[in-house]
Every structure is written in C-alpha cells, then in structure tokens.
Amino acid sequence: MMQSPKHRQLQQWLVVLACVVMVLLVLWQAAVITRNAALDEMRQANLNSLRLFVANLTSELEKYESLPQILARDERIIQLLRQPTDDAHRDLVNRYLQQVNEIAAASDTYVIDKHGLTLVASNWDTQAPFVGQNFSFRPYFQAAMRGEVGRYYALGATSKKRGYYYASPVRSGNEILGAAVVKVSPERVEAAWRNAPEKVIVTDYNGVVFITNNPSWKFKTLHPLSDTVRQRIEQSRQYPDAVMSPLPIIKEQLYDHGASLLTFRASDGDSPGRENTYLTQSREMPDHRWLVHLLADTRGVDARVTHSVGYATVSVITLCLVLLYVLQRRRNLAQRLQHQQHIEETLLNAQQELEVQVKQRTVELIRTNEQLDNKIKEQEHTERELRQAQEELIQSAKLAAVGQMSAGVTHELNQPLTAIQTYLGTATQLLEHRHYDELGENLANVLALTDRMARLTSQLKTFSRKSTQNLDAVPLKQTIHDALALIMHTHNQEVEVSDAMPEHEVYVRADATRLGQVFINVLKNAVDAMQECVNRKLTISMRTTGDSVSVSIGDNGGGIPEENLQKLFDPFFTSKEAGAGLGLGLSISQEIVNEFGGSITAKNQQQGGALFTLTFPAVNSDAAAQRAG
Q: N or C, which end of the chain is more exposed by having fewer CB within 10 Å?
C-alpha cells in the first residue's frame, strides 16, 4: 500500500524530531559524565597539592616554635626581668635579641614583663620599636602568663604588619616573670605560593583571610561576620583598620568528599566582566585553629566538557545522517548506485584516517612504554641508592655514638693501665727478692686487668663493625648485656639495673651488629632520660610468646611528652638540646627492627618514666645452639 505524500512528510518530521531529542539527550549526558569525571580528577590532584601547601606552612611555622622556649630559659633574659632597671644589661639583651632575630630570619623578637610592658626588642634601634609598648591585651601574652605556649595571628599594633606570634613564659622557679615572644611573617610562605596555578587562602576560626597568594583577597571573609564576632575582633585589635568585607562569592554548591564549587564575581585583578568558578577543598590545621583552602579554576573543566560535547555532537549527527540516509534510500531507489558510491568513498576516507590514527597511537604507545621502562630503571636505581644511603647513615650514626663514648672508654682503659704499670714495677722488686708467691699474685692481677680491657675493646669493636645484612640466630641476653656494659662504661653515673630476664639464653632472628646498635640506642636514651633523677633505676624484662620474644626497657625519668609520642620515631626529631643528638637513633632503630620482622613501641609508665617494648621473631634454642656450634 503506497503512503500518501502528506503521510511520508509527517513521518520524516517525526524522525527529525526524534533525532533532535536523541542528540540533546546524548549531549547532555556526555556533558554531565565528562564534567563529573574532570572534576573528580581535579579533586584528586588538588588534594595532594593541598597537603603540600599545608605541609609547607606547617614546616615554616614549626621552625620558630621552639625559639621563644629557648629564649625563656636564657639567664640573660631571666636576669633582665628580675632587674629591669639595669640599663647596661638591657642594652646587652637588646643587641642579643637583634642578633638572634637576624640569624633566625624572624620578623621580630622581644621580651615582655608580667605587666605586659615590652622591656627589650630586636627592633630597639628602628623608628617604631616595640620597647615601651604594652601588649597585655594580646591573647598570646595572656596565655604565657597562664604558663602556656601562646599562639596568635594578628596585625602588629605598632608595625601594622601581619605576623604569627609564639610566646613562651619566662620562669624563675614557680614564678612567671614575663614572656619571650617571636613574631613570624607570612610573606615568605606567600612568596612561595605566588606562582601556584591555584588560589590558596588561609582563614582563622572566624573565617577571615589573612594568608593568600591573591593580594586582593587579603582580610576578606568567606562569609559575612556577625556583629558579635566583628566586635570581638575589634576589641582584641587583631586586625586594626581592616574592613573585613566578604569575598565576592555569588554562588556556593556542595560537591563530593567535602569539596565545593564557589562562583566568584571577577575582581579587577582577575578577568573583569565575567564569573570565575573554583573547585574548593579545605584542610584543617587544628594546632593553630586555621583552615587552608585550595581553589582551582574550573575553566579547564569547561574546556574539556566543550571538547567532549563536540565529539559527541559529531558522533550523534553522523548517526542521524545514517538514519536519514536509510530513509532517503527507501524513497529514491533509483539513486541507490550513486549514493552507494558516495558512501563507499566516505567509508574509505574514514578507514584511511582511522589507519593513520592507529599508527599514530601505536607510535605514541611505544614511546610511552619506553618512557615507562626508563622511569622503572630510574626508580630501581634510586631505590638502590636509598638503601646504600640508609646503610651509610646507620654506620655513621654508630661511629658517631662510638665517638661520643670514646671519653668514657678512655677513662675505663686508663685505670687498668695504671694498675698494670704499678704491678709490673713491683714485680721487678719481688723477682729480685725471690718472693715468687707475691709475684704470681701480681701477674694474676695483671692478667685479670688485661682480660677486662679486652672485653671492653671487644664490645666497642663489635658495635662499630659494619653490618653484613645477613640474618641469623643471635643470643638476645648476651647482646643486651654487652650493650648495657658498654653504656655503663661510657656514662659516669650510678644506675641501678633490675634484670628480670630468664636464666637461659634466648635466640632471635637478627643481625648481631645491628641488634647491638638498637639496644645501644634504646639503653642510652633511657640513661640520658634519668640524668636529673637522684635515684636512677633501669628495668629490663623479657617475655616469650609463641614465635616471638618481647623485651621491655623502662626508666624512672621524666617520661615522654604526649605531643611527642606520635613523632618519636620520625627522622631528625629530638627533644634534646642542640648538639646533643641528630634525632636519628630511634628512627634507625625502628627501621632495623622492622627489617628483622619485629616492632618497637614507646609509652609512658603509670609510675613515671618511659617504657620501650621491642619484639623480635624467636629462633628455636636447640637449632640456634647447633648453628652456633
């Protein structure tokens, strides 16, 4: 049955309408999928960038955290706060703070008495010195007067410059005489961030922007401030003369995993006349009550969506053209050959283009594989270098410890050498007078002294020997006793040792040299921790459970501050004074124990002092004895 022209025309229009609807749906879906994928990739990449920014800011601030605490223990500053009217001493401390401030590259360093009056400052010879200024209204001073470490960010009341303040109480006995304050400028951090492609802002707990790589956003707020908050800021004089107007955010949309999309009205410094949308992610710095926000421009996402929609448009239109072609073919059978030839030519061109693209992609894939192989080889080379560096670092730390113990070893060797000299001098006279019994006793004493010297030098030689990296059955009790003997020889102080280890020998799977280094480090830290104690007591116990052996070493020192427990095994972390250690002993010990298949932990004891627990894989005692034989 033939269709009427009107019916065929209606059918064509319906097909066209269906094609249009299909095109719109496909394009909309392609845009949604592409945008979500691009935003998620950006979020993942920016999360790593945000961690780096936070780590950079934290590192910059932590460099100065201990400086006011060091100054607070300086006798020159304590004497000044006791005798503030001594002009000569005040001039001396002024110049001392000026020198400290230049070396530390801080913004300002000054000392405040208990009434809030600044007595000395590193900027004493500038046009606007802090000397004579009263900062009792500052929260960091109030915290120091409560015996706490003060932290505060504000504009300087005198200098009008931004800074982060650390304040530490200066004590004389139980009395707080004043506070030592160090001011750190954020400009160095901002300079490092200035060339970053993202926008970075740091806000305080009120939402005020005080550090950013976009100067036009400085002292803006993420949200309008309430009258109560604004009044509190003005009373504390945290940001004097700052307007604190809200950022030009015109729309905020929540995104996955805590991220959000913020749309800004473009400022003069950006692209005037348009809106900028940023993918925003935040990370908290709880110690400072700050939030670090990373804002990434989404224009690249929009470009990617445009490209994806363009490709989808081409694909869908091609499909629609094919459908229209089929309909046209049904209507015009007479033109079939002509259209067929046209299609074949089109397909041939498409095939040729596809082959070219396949070849190009193949070349790119080969090149990518070569680059990947090179990166793998570089990674393997880097790992070998790292392992070698680690071994050299361990050996250097051992030799450094040997150097520190050399004075004590020399003292221990001098005593028997002096006694041997005396015995030998007496032996000549005894031999002349034929007192052979007494002569035999003298020679026996000389032999005992030489045995003592041999044991001491043997322990030192074993400790300083380079490790073989081979794991074998090692006698644990003997290793601990040797390490303890070496520590006792090199520390001129009385320590009571409580030995709760079993009578029989216990063997573990380890390397003897590196195991000895681990116990040297742990025992030396325990003895050092008890330097201020009148009665020093060291407790060593051992417990065997299944296939593992645990050794606990406790002291009655001051214990480990809670804030240091998480960082105790970090490389270069030390709570000792400058020059007393590099902070590598516990880090290296943990690495060695982990290589043995064991673990090392630290905690504080209820009765006081620290307790280190080391766990090792046990070795059957019979098999170990046979191997040793």
A: N
Contact assessment for residue 94 and residue 121, using Cβ atoms and an 8 Å cutoff: yes
Percentage of the chain with pLDDT > 70?
81
Element (H, E) at 350: helix 336-432
- Return the sign of the alpha-carbon dihedral for residues 34, 35, 40, 42: positive
The DSSP code for 413 is H
Residue-wise DSSP of 439-483: HHHHHHHHHHHHHHHHHHHHHHHHHHSPP----EEEEHHHHHHHH
The answer to whether the beta carbons of residues 584 and 393 sit under 8 Å apart is yes
Task: Specify the residue for token string 């041939």.
Answer: 348
Contact predicate 120/131, CB 8 Å:
yes
Q: What is the pLDDT of residues 386-413, one digit of tens each?
A: 667 666 665 565 555 555 555 445 545 6
- Would you say residue 360 has pLDDT above 80? yes
**For all residues of the chain together, what is the average pLDDT?**
80
Beta strand extents in 529-589 (DSSP E only): 537-545, 548-555
- 155: which strand partners? 162
Amino acid at 600: I
What average pLDDT does range 551-578 have in this prediction? Answer: 83
pLDDT digits (tens, 9 = 90+) for 205-257: 788 887 888 888 888 888 888 888 888 877 777 777 777 788 888 877 787 77
Quick one: pLDDT at residue 616? 96
Which pTM does this prediction carry? 0.45
d(CA 5, CA 13) in angstroms, rounded, equals 12
Which superfamily does 72-185 belong to? PAS domain (3.30.450.20)
556: helix, coil or strand?
coil
Residue 536: phi and psi, rounded to 5, are -95, 125
* Cβ atoms within 10 Å of 103's Cβ, excluding its own: 9
Could you tell me the two tokens for 524?
Answer: 């030396």
In the numeric block, the tokens 């002509």 are attached to 338
State pLDDT tens for residues 274-316: 788 888 888 888 877 788 888 888 887 777 777 776 777 777 6
Angstrom distance (rounded) from CA 119 to CA 438: 74
Q: What is the pLDDT of residue 268?
A: 47
Residue 518: CB atoms within 10 A of its CB come to 27
For residues 172 and 597, what is the distance between their CA atoms, to the nearest angstrom? 48
CATH class of 1-65+190-329: alpha beta
C-alpha–C-alpha distance, residues 106 and 156, integer Å: 14
Per CATH, 1-65+190-329 and 72-185 having the same topology is answered: yes
CB atoms closer than 10 angstroms to residue 282 = 16
Q: Are strands 162-172 and 496-500 parallel, antiparallel or unpaired?
A: unpaired
